[in-house]
Amino acid sequence: MKEKMKQAFAEYRFFFIAIALLWMKTYIVYKTAFDLPMDNKMQEFILFINPISSIVLFLGVTLYFKGKAHRRMIVAISAIMSFVMYANMVFYRFFTDFITIPVLFQTSNMGDLGNSIFELIKPTDILLFVDIIVLAYFMRRYDYRPARASRKQVTLTFMAALVLFIVNVGIAETERPQLLTRTFDREMLIKNIGTYNYHIYDSILQSKAKAQRAFADSSEITDIENYARANYKEPNPEMFGKAKGKNVFVISLESTQNFVINESVNGKEITPFLNSLTKNSYYFPNFYHQTGQGKTSDAEFLVDNSLFPLPSGAVYFTHSQNEYNASPELLKEKGYYTSVMHANNKSFWNRDIMYHNLGYDRYYSLKDFNVTPENSVGWGLKDKEFFKQTIPHLKEQPKPFYTRFITLTNHFPFTLNEEDQSIPEWTSGDGTVNRYFTTVRYEDEALKEFFDEVKKAGLYDNSIFILYGDHYGISENHNEAMSQFLGKDITPFESIQLQKVPFFIHIPGDKGKVMNEVAGQVDIKPTIQHLLGNDTRGDIDLGTDLFSKDHGDFAVLRDNSYITKNNVFTKGKCYDKATGKPVDGKACKPGAERAKSDLEISDRIVYGDLLRFYDKDKAKQNK
Ligand code: GP9
Ligand code: MN
């Protein structure tokens, strides 16, 4: 027996070396390319062993081949698996997250990443593939050409992979109960079952989503309607219909976080215009973005549907064929013309398809703007130019209109021409954060100019303006610089504070006020509907009117964190807002049920495409 094993090891030595190399490499990538905080030695151990089962499984396939073919398969499979790690590395540098299948199909986005990609790829990345070249060289040099493995050997190898997987999941399950059933946190999955298994798992989840639609049935809509009805909040009579018949401008502020408001850097005000808006608008300093991997498009989805985006992938891609009951469709019934203006490729984030489905009359995309190298930077047309060029479109549009504007200049990597920089870059060791303030300031000036142009065009008085930050711009990769800027440690509690984005409702002629309630992007749709004097009873909205006296304080984020009046729940801990310190979990209990059910109901609607069973007129009658 021992002899036999020795013989097998000698015969297939490069097979074992390939396993060891890929294993070590994966672990090194974990430790160097990703930020995976470890609470204890056991977690570290799980992280160390988690790549092995899938490596044995995939490289095991090479045993079906003998001689040269076996050799080639080793190289090919090692290369593919290394590439999977590499793709995750690059993706992580941008999103601080791991790839999921729906995102992979967003090739149009990937292609458009353009100059961001160059920021993300490093020459040293080539090291990730060097071992494979060396391995290929030695297999040739030693003329490694094993015989075909016996059936027993192949079976034993796959059995070993299975046992290793069971052991891995077993230990992980004691460390992290319900790991595979809850799956809300990709980082946790990577830490526990490893990147390769995670990708297999992700494919299963995606197929499940496909099946879910097929199996959803019309009776489920009753639950959903009841949930929405229970969630409904009476409008505030002082605000209901306040903007009846007015144009609605909804402006998406790219990557703009609330921490820049009323702040300065090197003695220079970052957002003078937005700061002035806080004094003549309804300004919400405790307003959160609720986006996931779909970034800007997730925020758009929230704004128009009052539903949550998905826990993985971008709903604009994965469920663009669903039936929705979105703002443009509802407003069209009230005589509104609806459009979106954004100077980017129309297919980016699958917008052309999704907008059409949501009921927009018109998408003014790249081809509707005059974009030249001179008036562009980073991702495209500069915001000042963009806004200027929207004016003729706005003038020609039928009135009243509901139009969304999507800005672009304040996007990673936050580049700006010298002549556009009104405040100098900050001076920390982190270039991204340094540049951020300068591009935020540029965006702020673009907004100011836009308001002036809108006034000149005679459109101001008869309109309302909704401004929201779409999602964070500074990821957790930049905590060091952020902690320097804010003068405090970025704890999980502080990370949640950083998910606040600016939110303004500017109604000309109304002084507005600072509204301190905790709120989120999901609340935008019913708030607008009520301002326009439209009844929302019977609508499937998961958010509520922010002006309603019963709105309360609540926001749930897409990673399951949630915020109540006095507490923040994140990463399994409850924090007290006043101190920022962890407290007994009891304090967070009141929000737990709602956080869970809001997301669950929303996911059920989207995955099951349940609104195809919803009869709006009937629902309105039964209200
Ligand atoms: C692209 C723009 C930026 O059109 O909306 O997208 P993001 O990367 O922020 O989702
Ligand atoms: Mn964005």
From TrEMBL:
Q: Which domain of life is it from?
A: Bacteria
Q: How does it sit in the membrane?
A: Multi-pass membrane protein
InterPro entries for the chain: Alkaline_phosphatase_core_sf, LtaS-like, OpgB/LTA_synthase_biosynth, Sulfatase_N
| Location within or outside the cell | Cell membrane
For this protein, the record's Pfam families field holds:
Sulfatase (PF00884)
Bilayer-spanning residue ranges = 12-30, 45-65, 74-95, 126-142, 154-172
Q: Which residues form the Sulfatase N-terminal domain?
A: 246-533
CDD domains hit by this protein: LTA_synthase (cd16015)
Is Transmembrane helix one of the keywords?
yes
- Report the main location listed first in the record: membrane
Q: Which UniProt keywords apply?
A: Cell membrane, Membrane, Transmembrane, Transmembrane helix
Q: Does the keyword Transmembrane apply?
A: yes
Give the record's family classification: Belongs to the LTA synthase family.
What protein is this chain from? Phosphoglycerol transferase MdoB-like AlkP superfamily enzyme
Q: Which organism is it from?
A: Fictibacillus barbaricus
